[in-house]
Amino acid sequence: MDAQELEKIIHKVESKEKFFKKKSLLDTLSYPDKILGREKQTEELVTYLLGYKTGLVVPLISIYGRTGSGKSTIVKFVCDNLKDVSYCFVNLRKARTIFGFMNLILGELGQPNLKNANGITLLLENIEKTIESKVKSENKKLFVLALDEFDMLFYDKRGKPSDFIYKLLLLEDNLKAKGVLMCIVCISNNVLSEYDLEDRVRSRIGSSEIFFEPYSQKDVKEILQQRASEALDDKIEKDYVLDYCAEKSSLGHGDARRAIDLLRVAAEIAAINGKKITLEDIDLADDKLQQDRIDVILHSASYHLKVTCFAIARLAYLTGEEWLSTFVLYHQYTKLLSKNIKPLTYRRISELLTELENTGLVKSHTMSKGRQGYGTEYKLTFQPSSIGMRCFPELWFAIAKEKFNHDSQTRIKSLHSGVSKSSSMNNMDFLTNNSENLWKNYVENNQSMDL
Ligand SMILES: Nc1ncnc2c1ncn2[C@@H]1O[C@H](COP(=O)(O)OP(=O)(O)O)[C@@H](O)[C@H]1O
Ligand SMILES: [Mg+2]
Fold it and tell me: Is 280 inside any structural domain?
């Protein structure tokens, strides 16, 4: 490439950027100057926080609701605008252990991280000192520690949620003794009181809870309209494009984050063509976001998690069954493992399935098994081939090819004779076993697999 070609690229990017009036408003981490609705939740939060005026601050507030219901936005918006409040907003998704979580808090407070060898006591002392000097130097009355994605603590055994909260409550006590008031705000999908917490924590945290009900499709449309006019100067082909965008992102529940993401990606697609956003752009954006999500989840997945995913995708693809029990999946998972790899326990695979559900890749429901009580069944939320292809592409090709041949042969046979149900089942067994052999060969020939 020479300077002239670079110039062309710069020109192309610039003309794409011109499509946007203020692109930063389509970043879901930012929030606009004006928040739509949510007055009730805002009032509840403000009431709890202003308790400091009477010296009565609740130690912990649990903010809960589905994703994209405006929880993080409202907490930041309120804390930014309460003039006597100093705050620190920490997303716990980025750590796994108590030490890691505490280090995140320290980092957000603008201090260098500590090493494990320094010990948790020193880490807590540093947090305490920093908060104290921050509140005093800024001349504030209250310090808010907002812990976003608090559910993370409950997904990983190393998180020890009770211990973590207990340590923070002690920190609150220490600060109070020094004349600094503090309040912890936990933001999560489920209400904190429903989680399994130790009594010593439960008795301290009280029940200051604020629920964010999911947005309706109409709410999402209004949020989209506001963003489209501020960020895109209304470069929307017709008003119903936003309705469609709101509808697509409200299939499960109204999710403002998904809606804004969809609008941003659709706008990027439209910008390339230099045209207003159309329904097709929304569809294309939806496909792209789905693929991106699968990539992100599977990119960081362990080998065993990938095999578990592959097990679901493979069974769903070959048998056409959507819902699969933990028992069936575990059996499939062990069959898919190469001989030289020790399978994880049944319990661990159950945990991995819960982890997969938390990522949104699968859904679960509880099924009655008659006298044997209840069991959980899982279903992919994406097409089996999008998952299978991304876990182990070559193997998925082999399975798809095998299924194609099998389906064509069955079709030819049925044209000649009319196939009975039982013989088609036998064919399915043959196919399933055959694919297992393919898998074994694949694993044995791929020593470099990411273990
Ligand atoms: N009431 C609202 N008014 C304007 N924008 C909103 C509103 N609620 C949510 N948003 C936007 O939707 C996106 C997702 O909201 P967020 O607060 O991250 O949801 P949650 O934390 O519940 O998952 C953000 O970009 C946010 O700015
Ligand atoms: Mg959030």
Answer: yes
Structure tokens at 418: 């009319």
- Residues 188/210, Cβ–Cβ less than 8 Å: no
Residue 227 to residue 26: CA distance in whole angstroms? 7
Residues by chain with Cβ below 5 Å of ion ligand 2: 72
Domain termination residue (choose one: 186, 212, 238): 212
**In this structure, are residues 68 and 257 in contact, taking their beta carbons and an 8 Å threshold?**
yes
Residue 451 lies in a domain: no
Same domain, 259 and 279: yes
Residues 315 and 266 in one domain: no
Residue with the smallest CA separation from ligand 1 atom 1 is 36
> Ligand 1: does its nearest atom lie under 6 Å from the Cβ of 388?
no
Report the distance separating Cα 259 and Cα 81, nearest Å: 26
Kindly identify the ligand whose nearest atom is closest to the C-alpha of 222. Answer: 1
- Ligand 1 mean position, distance from CA 448 (Å): 42
Q: What is the pTM of this model?
A: 0.75
Q: How far is the centre of ligand 2, averaged over its atoms, from the C-alpha of 77 (Å)?
A: 13
Shared-domain flag, residues 81 and 206: yes
Measured from the CB, is residue 214 less than 6 Å from ligand 1?
no
Domain match, 157 and 54 both? yes
CA distance 1 to 4: 8
Per the structure, the count of domains in the chain is 3
Residues 83 and 148 in one domain: yes
Q: Which of 73, 78, 149 to mutate to test the pocket of ligand 1 (most atoms within 8 A of CB)?
A: 73
Query: Where in the sequence is the domain holding 340, given as residue range(s)?
Result: 301-445
Give the length of the chain.
451
Centre of ligand 2 to C-alpha 9, Å, is 36
The CA 356 to ligand 2 mean position distance, Å, reads 19
Q: Of 183, 212, 241, which residue is a domain's last?
A: 212
CB-count exposure of residue 143 (10 Å: 0-12, 13-18, 19+):
buried
pLDDT digits (tens), the chain, 451 positions: 888 888 888 888 877 777 777 877 777 777 777 888 899 999 999 999 998 888 788 999 999 998 899 999 999 999 999 999 999 999 998 888 888 889 999 999 999 888 887 788 888 999 999 999 999 999 999 999 999 999 888 876 666 888 889 999 999 999 999 989 999 999 998 888 888 888 888 888 888 999 999 998 899 999 998 888 888 776 777 788 888 989 988 877 889 998 999 999 998 888 888 788 888 999 999 888 888 888 888 888 888 999 999 999 999 999 888 899 999 999 999 998 877 889 999 999 998 998 888 788 898 888 777 776 678 899 998 889 889 988 988 889 988 888 888 888 777 777 776 545 444 444 445 555 555 666 666 666 554 443 3
